[in-house]
């Protein structure tokens, strides 16, 4: 994808109405701090257009990035952040559910998993939830630069087993530091979901 222009067009909180977009949407889910906003920046060829932070819980809204007036990359708020009240978790669930269930333009949901760690119960729940909403999640194993090359296959296997992936599910290793995996993600999005 050649990035000509990007625009953070809509920021949706708990009480906001979801946008009635006319271009396809591709969403990125995953636990807090897994690297969703970093991935979106890498896809947009920007360093810090989407706000990233070492402190989990940075993105608490659904952010719609308009790409070339052609499509949207959608940054979802992360889950599994311990310092969040029960009430906030419920609000988060309602917001995500409203979006996954209600968006007419949502074409695909990518689920990000830190390649270093076995998927958590929350990751598994999120995976099953995405499947239950009728999507075939694509897995992105993030922070690839943090493990040795010789360990990659072992970690990918643990991710697949931990989530109980449907056979044939695509898993793309990715690093926002080296940008490895970025072209593969774009190629996949362009061939599968765009005109
Ligand atoms: P929330 O908005 O809290 O849900 O987090 P997020 O999933 O958007 O994560 P974010 O992109 O803000 O990244 C969290 C931290 O991980 C930041 O300190 C990033 O610099 C770091 N990070 C993200 N991706 C990578 C990666 O591929 N490699 C390395 N080494 N660090 C990464
Ligand atoms: Mg974020």
From TrEMBL:
Keywords of the record: Cell cycle, Cell division, GTP-binding, Magnesium, Metal-binding, Nucleotide-binding, Septation
Pfam families: MMR_HSR1
GO CC annotations, alphabetized: cytosol
Family: Belongs to the TRAFAC class TrmE-Era-EngA-EngB-Septin-like GTPase superfamily. EngB GTPase family.
Family annotation (InterPro entries): G_ENGB_dom, GTP-bd, GTP-bd_ribosome_bio_YsxC, P-loop_NTPase
UniProt superkingdom: Bacteria
EngB-type G domain residues: 22-195
Needed cofactors: Mg(2+)
GO BP annotations, alphabetical order: division septum assembly
UniProt-listed HAMAP family: GTPase_EngB
GO molecular function, one term: GTP binding
Protein name: Probable GTP-binding protein EngB
Species for this entry: Dorea phocaeensis
Annotated function: Necessary for normal cell division and for the maintenance of normal septation.
